[in-house]
Structures are given as C-alpha cells and as structure tokens.
C-alpha cells in the first residue's frame, strides 16, 4: 500500500487520465474492519489507502483489477460476507461500491506551441484526451492560461528523447517552428513503430522532401505512408484557426475508430455529422 492518501491519488489519477477504481464501503453489519465511507483507490499495479486488510480487501482489489483488465466502466455493488465469502473471523457483512474509470483512451502528443498548436490545444480541451504538449523554445508557452488537468506542457530539449518518452499508441501532431525539428520528430516516431497516428503540418512540396530523406534513412515505404501530410483540409484557408480546426476534425474520427490505427486520408469513412458534433458538444 502506498502512503499517498486516497483523495490525493484520485486527484492525480484523474488529472493524468490514468485507469483506476474507487472502492467505497457503503454499508456494514456486525463486526467489520472499517466503517461505511472508508475508501481505497486501486490501479493495475498500486493500492492507495485501505478498507481494513485481510482476505476481504484482497477480494476487493481482485474484483477492481478484473474490471480494469476487461476495460469496464461505471459502478457496481459487491457484497462480502466476512465469515463466508472472505473467510475472516470477524463475521460481519460489507457492501462495497466499485467505481471503475478505465482512463483516457486517447493520448495526443502535440509538438509546437505556435498559433496553430495553441488553437489545436484549445479545440481538444473538451475531449476526454490526455494532451502532452511540447515546444523546444524557452518561451514557447508564454502568455498562456494555466493548463487544464489533462494537459501537460513540456519544454523539449531533444526530439528523439521526447518521442521515446511518449506512451505507447500515442497520436502525434507535429507542427513546430523549425523544419529540421519536424523532420527529427517524424524520424523518431517512425523508429518507434508503435505510434497510433502521425500527422505533419506543411505543404506537399515539404512532404516530398521529407519522404525522400526518410527513404534515404532506411524507413520503408509502408511506414512512411502512415504519415499524414499535409494535415487536415482547410479548403485553402491558411488562417491558423482554420488549419487547426481541419486538423482536429481529421484526427477525431481516427482517434475514436479503434480498429483502424494509422488511418491515412482517403481511406475508410469520411467525417460525418456525428463526428463533428462530438467534437464541439
């Protein structure tokens, strides 16, 4: 058991979008280890606080982790007879509510805090996504309001190290102020091989140049084809907000279509009205 109190662990896990279960003792009869209202937080590999220990607590932990492994979400009531199901000598009876939160399924890594990057960060804020936002400039995030709980800002000294530190199956949007930095990020992402999607801002001529360099660096044509460049389709409108809006509208169905990783523009379904409504509601 960790020393961090359950309420601090809960705030941190919610902020970071990590999977967890809140176990709350809601009723008790007879002799029981804890009182109604006692809580503990359970993650796939850690436990915060306690419902009293013993076999009963291990059964609660096992039930919670079964839910997390199965990707379940929501609330369920579990009943424990401490002299029966749990085999404990106190002989009481306990009801526990398990509130399972599977975590944010979408991890977006946004590289670049210029005008387009700032609009993208604002547009995705209402979505249940974790945003890891990187910029190599010391003042990249200057004059921005405080970050929302699911937004994490990072100064990026090295593109390779930043990409290596991402969670598996992250979606990447690359739109820094520097073409050399953009290339280094795409190269690092393709070397990882487990990115859910890679989007790169720029013109078609920029992508022709990048593609040749990536081929010369030894990346396969199949791997290179997973990169979307240019991102979005703003209909020729180059205003930063228009570019950001089209990029997010393109990315949203890619992120929610779990069976179509590395989707490229032109494949599968287009963006329908329901997808766009989910972006703004």
UniProtKB/TrEMBL annotation:
InterPro entries: MoCofactor_Util/Proc, Xanthine_DH_XdhC, XdhC_CoxI, XdhC_Rossmann_dom. It holds the Pfam family XdhC_CoxI. It comes from the Bacteria. Residues 14-74 form the XdhC- CoxI domain. Residues 108-251 form the XdhC Rossmann domain. PANTHER family: ALDEHYDE OXIDOREDUCTASE MOLYBDENUM COFACTOR ASSEMBLY PROTEIN (PTHR30388), XANTHINE DEHYDROGENASE SUBUNIT A-RELATED (PTHR30388:SF6). This is Xanthine dehydrogenase accessory factor. It comes from Halomonas cupida.
